Amino acid sequence: MKNIPFIILSLLSVLLIHSCSAIKVSNIKSTDLEIINLGMKKAVVTSILGPKYTISKKKKENGKIVEVISYRNYPYYENEHYHFRFEDGNLTEWHREFVPNLLQEKIVKKDI
Q: What pLDDT does 35 receive?
């Protein structure tokens, strides 16, 4: 009976760690981006940047399957996202996007 609080705390800790691991983030390095070339297959791009991406878009356009995958550059720039567009599995374009942190902006505006 004395171990029940310890067991409950241990289980909660495991659940917390497990739930945090489901967040798909990646550490994008400029050296990795320098070797990414248009025309590369999706499997090659994901082998360079890692498997922690999300599918942002998937559709058929002009008879081609278009898929956009996104990486979040964490922990360095958590508001920095990279989007890679593939047509029929080949990289056709990619770009970097900065997404504003609305919570941080509210805090800053509130302090002013």
A: 94
At the topology level, CATH places domain 24-111 in Beta-lactamase Inhibitory Protein; Chain:B, domain 1 (3.30.1450)
- For 79, phi and psi rounded to 5 degrees? -90, 0
Q: What is the mean pLDDT of residues 9-16?
A: 56
Q: Which tokens belong to 111?
A: 């302090």
For 26-79, write each residue's pLDDT tens digit.
567 888 999 999 999 999 999 999 999 999 999 999 999 999 999 987 655 567
Query: What are the residue ranges spanned by the domains of the chain?
Result: 24-111
